[in-house]
Amino acid sequence: MAFHSQVDLVGGYYDAGDNVKFTFPMAFSITMLAWSLLEFGQSLGTDLQHSLKAIQWGTDYLLKATSVPGFVFAQVGDPYGDHNCWERPEDMDTPRTPYAVSKEFPGSEVSAEIAAALAASSMVFRPINRGYSARLLKRARMIFEFADKYRGSYNDSLGPWACPFYCDYSGYQDELVWGAAWLLRATKAPYYRNYVLANIQNLDKSSSFAEFGWDTKHAGINVLVSRLIKSQTPEPFITNADKFVCSVLPESPTISVSYSPGGLLIKPGGSNLQHATALSFLLLVYSRPLSKDSRVIHCGNVVATPARLIQVARSQVDYILGSNPLNMSYMVGYGAVVGGPDIKDSYGDSRADFAHSEPTTYINAPLVGLLAYFKSH
């Protein structure tokens, strides 16, 4: 629903080259920035302060977007008016209408992703700002409860504005489990553990082992939860995280992604480098418990070692930064990674071809952890 009361929604991030604040991909990007710091923050050196600022710029906004009881602000700006006119934010003159989900018009996916972002960020700030950390965690619990109690997709209420830009194609069940998993990691509370175990079977199992991004959380859930919930027999999260590895390794018999001749991981749709960065991040994160347990993964007759997972992640980072057939870096300046080349490694450098030329927050957020790790190794 469009919302006309006076509420402060200054701050936050635009998702890409437009001037609309889409809360769903923004919250996912903050979750990924926070996860990057939780895993690899010690490798960031002097850049740690910049990363903390980047996260807080997002979490401050998410606190504002959830500050009116019973409402969660899912979007600011009219996307059609905005996308018809490319201009600097300073010159923006398109409507800044805020859109919210509520009890009557639920949006479980956007609300639960906010809960995930706040819970993950609360752990980042815990050692340095306990008060702020506690505030984030308290809000995360509250918004998760709202997402779970009033279930429904924001497609149904905000579809005319959120779609086709950030329609939720995979349903909201994965965000509910993802939000609960982050709350479990942040609180260790049995309630969230039980929630994850009780709701995991609601996820669509068909072909989602290699799916992870702003819309679909499956592979991320399995990698995250495989380290949080042990003692299940059999352990579905470890089994599924192993299946994820086998679905992205180039030599695996059960591969479900494509690779360009130059070695770039490719999935259908626009902004392809979001898949290369997010899936590489998961490979790198999952390699750590494998190393610790001296374990390898069997993909049919192919054996995947932790070192091999790191190597595949590294090949994607190297490709993005210039080790590719065009010898071209897809990072602009010190941080804006664009959508990237096509499946033949070719790149038409055209602003109008936004599926390839536009940077997005969710392409860049997972790359922070990857770059921090490879800088120090």
From TrEMBL:
PROSITE patterns tied to this protein = GH9_3
Name the EC number(s).
3.2.1.4
Example GO molecular function term?
Answer: cellulase activity
The entry's active site is D349, E358
Please, one GO biological process term?
Answer: cellulose catabolic process
What keywords tag this UniProt record? Carbohydrate metabolism, Cellulose degradation, Glycosidase, Hydrolase, Polysaccharide degradation
Q: State the InterPro entries in the record.
A: 6-hairpin_glycosidase_sf (IPR008928), 6hp_glycosidase-like_sf (IPR012341), Glyco_hydro_9 (IPR001701), Glyco_hydro_9_Asp/Glu_AS (IPR033126)
Similarity annotation: Belongs to the glycosyl hydrolase 9 (cellulase E) family.
Protein name, as recorded:
Endoglucanase
